[in-house]
Amino acid sequence: MFENLDSVVDKYHELEHRVADPELISRQKEWQKAMKEMSDMEPIVKKYQEYKKAKQELEDAKEMLESESDEEMREMAKAEVSEQEDNLEKFTEELKVLLIPKDPNDEKNVILEIRAGTGGDEAALFGGDLLRMYTRYAERQGWKIEIMNSNDTGIGGIKEAEAMIKGKGAYSRLKFESGVHRVQRVPETETAGRIHTSAATVAVLPEVDDVEVDIDPNDVKVDVYRASGNGGQCVNTTDSAVRLTHLPTGIVVTCQDEKSQIKNRAKAMKVLKARIYDKMLQEQNDKIAAERREQVGSGDRSERIRTYNFPQGRVTDHRIGLTLYKLDQIMDGDLDDIIDALNSDYQAKKMQEV
To answer: What pLDDT is attached to residue 285?
Structure first.
């Protein structure tokens, strides 16, 4: 079933010799690239070796069972056949998972965008709750989170916010969070105790390298203005806030959290590149819509992906039909149960293709 992996093993051993070559080590960029390639291949190679060993030991046990006349030896052979059949089945499934094509963005940092949707002030308050939820989750993972831009309502809510999340595997863990998040609860301002339904949109974008998105400076309109909102002495005294408009796509990005216009411009450019890259991915994905519909987290942001029901204390992810009655913990950043389930569902679908 996996015989073509022999060529992968050969390539892995070839890389082992190359990375030990002093001449290659002296060329650090090439050496690091070879090390990365070898590191990516290693789990597959190791698991394939376990698979081959189990397969050989199963064949040996079957051969012993057929040739042995001693009953005690036959019982030992039967036990070995049973054990190695179980191992072979386990290693086969594990290899299938490892052979699922990896998302090239999985190890990248994330630009998180949250925008209040329908529901007015309550939607903005929920947007603020989501930002806190993801901040808590990032802290649990040991990631660094930096708020790049925030349009606050003044009552604890946000109309929109952008944050950079830096950490190993951030995109792989958060990429299925993109979509419309719906909340059902009684607003603090509701005197009659009626449950309101509001929504906020979450977008998770991989941070992109300069080489991945080439932006012509002539295509970007730059506006500077005075920062607004609750700040320090520099607020409304210097033109430090930056607005970038990408003319070909109409994408607009603002950044005002730094006192330095140069730093705000650099951060805004990172967000602009991420959004253009995301737009490129969306256009590419539209061409394979049939396949994308089968995948979890297709990135269709018009789709309601999750409901947070406060009166019942439950959270439901509609894509996989998962309901958890631990809303307080989830809002405090305990997202692993949901994220693990989404990743497992995605892997199961991809395994069928493998």
So the answer is: 65
d(CA 62, CA 84): 10
Is-above-0.70 flag for pTM? no
Laid out side by side, the sheet with 251-255 consists of 220-225, 241-246, 251-255
Q: What is the reported pLDDT for 340?
A: 92
pLDDT at 237: 52
* Distance (Å, whole) CA 215 – CA 227: 26
β partners of residue 241: 225
Per-residue pLDDT tens over the stretch 279-317:
887 776 665 444 334 333 333 334 689 999 999 999 999
pLDDT attached to residue 347: 82
Between helix 71-98 and helix 28-67 the angle, nearest 10°, is 150
Sequence letter at residue 278: D
Cα 243 off chain centre by: 27
Quote the mean pLDDT of the chain: 85
**Which candidate, 331, 345, 338, places its Cα nearest to that of 200?**
331
Query: Nearest-CA neighbor of 162 among 85, 255, 224?
Result: 255
Q: Distances from the Cα of 311 to the Cαs of 28, 124, 185, in angstroms?
A: 57, 19, 6
Please tell me the predicted confidence (pLDDT) of residue 158: 93
The span from the CA of 188 to the CA of 156, in Å, is: 12
Q: Is residue 308 within 8 Å of 315, Cβ to Cβ?
A: yes
**Could you tell me if 309 and 327 are in contact, meaning their C-beta atoms sit under 8 angstroms apart?**
yes
> Which two tokens mark 247?
């003319």
Where b means 16+ CB within 10 Å and e means fewer, 88-101 reads: beebeeebbebbee
Residue 333: pLDDT over 60: yes
Task: Give one DSSP letter per residue of 259-296, joined into a string.
Answer: S-HHHHHHHHHHHHHHHHHHHHHHHHHHHTHHHHHTSS
